Amino acid sequence: MYGWIWRHLPGNAWVRGVIALVLVLAVVYALFQYVFPWAEPLLPFGEVTVDGASAGGAGAGQ
Amino acid sequence: MSSRLSARSLRLVVRTFSELCITVGALIVLFVAYVLLWTGVKAADAAEGEIETLHSRWAQEPAALSPGPSSAPSPAPYRDGKPFATLHIPRFGADWEWPVLENTEARTLQKGLGHYSGTARPGETGNFAVAGHRRTYGDPFKDFPRLRPGDAVIVNDGTTWFTYRIAKEPYRTVPTDTAVVDPVPRRSGFEGPGRYLTLTTCEPEWGSSHRLIAWAHLDATRPVSEGKPPDLTG
After folding, report:
1. How many of the other CB atoms lie within 10 Å of CB of A29?
2. Which residues on A lie below 8 Å from B178 (Cβ)?
3. pLDDT, tens digit (0-9, with 9 covering 90-100), for B184-196
4. Distance between CA A46 and CA B133 in Å, rounded?
5. Which of B35, B135, B181 sits opposite A50 (nearest CB)?
6. In chain B, whose CA is at the least distance from the CA of A51?
């Protein structure tokens, strides 16, 4: 997988290294900005309210 | 020939599998770092911004003209998701200060403490009920179990410092027990109407099976113009 990506990057080893680093940073940014904020409310740490109506509690779903 | 081919494809499978394992491991480490550290950074930043919003609003308003909790005939309703007060609990640290925002939605609680919509305002007769994260998003209520009777919980709404006193040690209940934020909260030991405050957070620390509740009653009020109450200065 990673070998395949490496082979398909253009340029010499230095150029490839820089591009690979940029790719890694882009992935980490996307994770912190979009994926993790979406996934975090699925964990139970946000349920801090008493709420009779919904089982998840007001702090969970919305 | 065919044995060399199968050895190559086997190596490819093993290599891909191990790369996947490393990727999943790295994802988990990153997610833990996000939940434990980054949510705290975001919350501290957001809370600071909300407190600054409050201070600049209070500086503009002619708040000094109407000191006291009930001198205004009908105060404007709190705006959803917007801050309206700061909360101070010296037991949690001398500089422990969090904004209180209207409603208890998840997005609100990521920026500070949440006021249960429909419960009383600070200093009013009834129950001023506030929810907060115990863990993640800055851990505002991390030390919740350390609250003891007599501890001060201080609210500043821009015109008045309201000093509430914790009535009893934190009470553990189930998430559906909404009677704990009633005007006269059940099991609080309070009898009859009064000026109460309720704090809620999750229990256990990293779980959601229960809730931890703390009740307090209004002990003293002090106009902001007279400076901080003794519990914050001493």
Report:
1. 10
2. 50-52
3. 998 899 999 999 9
4. 6
5. B181
6. B176
Q: Which residues of B are catalytic?
A: 133, 202, 211
| Amino acid occupying residue B150 | G
> CA B171 → CA B140, B147, B166, distances in Å?
18, 11, 12
Inspect the interface and report whether the beta carbons of A41 and B106 lie closer than 8 Å.
Answer: yes
In terms of Cα–Cα distance, which of B146, B154, B134, B118 is closest to B211?
B134
Instruction: Kindly indicate the confidence band of residue A51, based on its pLDDT and cuts at 50, 70 and 90.
Output: confident
Element (H, E) at B86: strand B83-88
Among B208, B165, B209, B207, residue whose Cα is nearest residue B188 = B165
CB-based contact, B206 to chain A, within 8 Å: yes
On whether ipTM exceeds 0.90, the answer is no
Q: Which helix (H) or strand (E) holds B102?
A: strand B97-102
Q: What is the pLDDT of residues B50-85, one digit of tens each?
A: 999 999 999 987 654 544 454 555 678 899 999 999
Q: What structural domains does chain B harbor?
A: 40-233 (2.40.260.10)
Instruction: Return all residues near B15 (Cβ < 8 A) that are at least 6 apart.
Output: A3
